[in-house]
Amino acid sequence: MCKNRSQWSTHIKAQLKSVRDVLYLSGPDLQRRTALSCSEVQELLTAAAAACRRHRPTTALQLHHSERQRSKSSLRLSAACPVLDLLLRGGLPVGAITELSGESGAGKTQLGLQLCLSVQYPPEHGGLSSGALYICTEDQFPIRRLQQLIAGQSVLRSDVPSSLNSCLCFSDHIYIEHTADLESLKVCLSRRAPLLLGQGLVRLIVVDSVASLFRCEFQADDWLERNKQLLILSSMLHYLSQEFDASVLCINQVTDVFSQSANSLGPSSSSVCPALGLAWANQVMVRLMMLRLQETVSRGDESSTLRRLEVVFAPHLARDGRHVAVWREGVRGVVLPE
After folding, report:
1. Cα 26 from chain centroid (whole Å)
2. What is the CATH number of the domain that holds 185?
């Protein structure tokens, strides 16, 4: 019989080539082949069973879940512009919250509407083969501008076959909600949105804008309750995005920068930063900012104020930006002459 643990291990290795050899043999057979006592055989079987559990092969269900997580983390919703998609590495992430902030007239709503059309294309053309839920919290939904964008899809999406552009009924797959206060927004996100997402009718939620309700409902002294409600709202949005593999875009307003520390929440070159402070900033995965510049660009009979879309922070993106302009058919990147 082996005198110590080292001799015991060497002896077993000589007799048995793998854990399976141990588990396939009965106690008496193991005792005969290894010359171990009954208690030592039981200890050997326990150790072999533990080793088997540690190296248990992955099941089909585990593979399915891991593959789903990998595909979801790499899935993107195209911005319908090659310049912006290059900046965003394919577009808005699925299963996360993206924030787009900027001053009034910067083009935030324009890009939000464009994404509502982009989501309806199949994945091979940058979409998610589904619709969008557009939640307005302050202004009326810009239906005329949406119709103009729909009419210009063949121009904006020249990469898509004309037969596909003509067969998509864009306006039938955009669901519009107006929420005048925070409570109605929470009701929409807890009842209406899960119903649409669960039926596969939408995979994009746009909240335009997230700051307006908090600015009108809370005073400066209510910061504790305000932050609590912000966390509740972000929790609801995170749940919807992750449970239903959806992309969430929150359009945000801006506030003036009074200190260098506040400016860290926005582009260093800007005199404004996104509203709602650090409590909200920690809830979004991607923060984008649209800046309205002083220059004007022209194209044929059209002219547009030049804008710049900048990445403020994102775990997978470089802090960079691209110039864009708003044309009749939508938001497109602009390459300026050097």
Report:
1. 53
2. 3.40.50.300
Range name among 67-76, 86-95, 229-238 with the lowest pLDDT average = 67-76
The size of the chain, in residues, is 338
Using alpha carbons only, give the angle 107, 113, 114 rounded to the nearest 5 degrees: 90
My answer on whether 116 and 39 are in the same domain is no
Q: Is residue 64 part of a domain?
A: no
Question: Is 176 within 8 Å of 196 (Cβ atoms)?
Answer: no
Give the range of the structural domain holding residue 181, as residue numbers without chain letter: 78-333
Would you say residue 73 lies in a domain?
A: no
Same domain? For 92 and 171 the reply is yes
CA 110 – CA 156 distance, rounded (Å): 13
146 and 27 within one domain: no
Task: State mean pLDDT over 256-267.
Answer: 63
What's the CA gap between 274 and 230, in Å, rounded? 14
pLDDT tens-place string over residues 161-215: 999 998 999 999 999 999 999 999 999 999 999 999 999 999 999 999 999 998 8
Q: Record the tokens describing residue 196, joined without a space.
A: 């649409």
277-298 burial by CB neighbour count: b if 16+ within 10 A, else e?
beebbebbbbbbbbbeeeeebe
